[in-house]
């Protein structure tokens, strides 16, 4: 099955009106691509970014949502609000949310459910810590993180989702998984999804994330089960990010 590649940039809590304007000006020079190119700015800049990319080659993502629909949840942002700003994707279960903000598997599953209800496409981030990898728990961790979501929304919902395999030890560390290591895990994730639905498993795009750079991503994109990349640090540099998009084809 041919799956379109996605290259997504997670800007995390970076940027200012000025720096985002100049980053976007660089990105908008990229022109058309065979891959879907997604950017995830911080909430306050969604409106600015949406206005600048309107109708262009970039697709908007948010970095988080509330697991509640609306009401007295000071400081939270709802899925429906994001729909108002042209957001298509939302990152959920990012390891920084799991580790720093103590988001459990069940909170992540609740957020996935709300996102889907309001027409957002979750990018479900999963992945093991270094300790878990060293004790051969990589697959059991990924499977547990996926199973909780299957239990909450059903396997068919994965047709409207993207999975991002992001080994925690590779995020922001400069230590990327090798193309072969990524392929091994991606293939296993697909095989795990296939136990619930073969057809869904073939459709789901599985992205790799963790210190992806222009200089090393070509081998990654050759792998049959790697359907793109979720890029953190390197997405803050227009030239570098465009080179990653070009390498994806
Ligand atoms: C991320 O935060 O999703 C990520 C992959 O970061 P980096 O590319 O900086 O490792």
From TrEMBL:
SUPFAM superfamilies: Triosephosphate isomerase (TIM)
GO molecular function: triose-phosphate isomerase activity
Annotated keywords: Cytoplasm, Gluconeogenesis, Glycolysis, Isomerase
Any GO CC annotation of this UniProt entry: cytosol
Pathway in which this enzyme or protein is active: Carbohydrate degradation; glycolysis; D-glyceraldehyde 3-phosphate from glycerone phosphate: step 1/1; Carbohydrate biosynthesis; gluconeogenesis; Carbohydrate metabolism; erythritol degradation
Positions with a binding annotation for substrate: 10-12, 172, 211, 232-233
Main location: cytoplasm
InterPro entries in the record: Aldolase_TIM, TIM_sf, TrioseP_Isoase_bac/euk, Triosephosphate_isomerase, Triosephosphate_isomerase_AS
Localization of this protein: Cytoplasm
Keyword Nucleotide-binding recorded: no
Active site: 94 (electrophile), 166 (proton acceptor)
GO BP terms in the entry: gluconeogenesis; glyceraldehyde-3-phosphate biosynthetic process; glycerol catabolic process; glycolytic process
The enzyme's E.C. designation: 5.3.1.1
Pfam families: TIM
Catalytic activity: D-glyceraldehyde 3-phosphate = dihydroxyacetone phosphate
Lineage top rank: taxon: Bacteria
Protein purpose: Involved in the gluconeogenesis. Catalyzes stereospecifically the conversion of dihydroxyacetone phosphate (DHAP) to D-glyceraldehyde-3-phosphate (G3P).
Alphabetical list of PANTHER family matching this protein: TRIOSEPHOSPHATE ISOMERASE (PTHR21139:SF42)
Subunit organization: Homodimer.
Stated family: Belongs to the triosephosphate isomerase family.
Name of the protein in question: Triosephosphate isomerase
Organism this protein belongs to: Marinomonas profundimaris
Upper classification of the organism: Bacteria, Pseudomonadati, Pseudomonadota, Gammaproteobacteria, Oceanospirillales
The gene coding this protein: tpiA
């Amino acid at each position: 099955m041919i799956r379109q590649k996605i290259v997504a940039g997670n800007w995390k809590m970076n940027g200012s009106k000025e720096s985002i304007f100049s980053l976007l000006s660089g990105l908008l020079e990229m022109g058309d691509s065979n891959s879907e190119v997604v950017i995830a700015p911080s909430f306050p800049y969604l409106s600015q970014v949406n206005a600048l990319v309107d109708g262009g080659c970039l697709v908007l993502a948010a970095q988080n949502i509330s697991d509640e629909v609306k009401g007295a949840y000071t400081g939270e942002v709802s899925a429906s609000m994001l729909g108002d700003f042209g957001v298509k994707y939302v990152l959920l279960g990012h390891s920084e949310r799991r580790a720093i903000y103590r988001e459990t598997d069940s909170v992540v599953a609740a957020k996935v459910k709300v996102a889907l209800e309001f027409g957002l496409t979750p990018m479900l981030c999963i992945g093991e810590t270094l300790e878990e990898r060293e004790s051969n728990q990589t697959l059991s961790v990924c499977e547990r993180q996926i199973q909780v979501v299957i239990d909450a929304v059903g396997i068919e919902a994965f047709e409207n989702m993207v999975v991002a395999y992001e080994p925690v030890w590779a995020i922001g560390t400069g230590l990327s998984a090798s193309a072969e290591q990524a392929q091994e895990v991606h293939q296993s994730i697909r095989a795990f999804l296939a136990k619930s639905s073969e057809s869904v498993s073939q459709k789901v795009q599985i992205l790799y994330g963790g210190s992806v750079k222009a200089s090393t991503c070509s081998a990654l994109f050759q792998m049959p089960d790697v359907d793109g990349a979720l890029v953190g640090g390197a997405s803050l540099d227009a030239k570098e990010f465009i080179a990653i998009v070009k390498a994806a084809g």
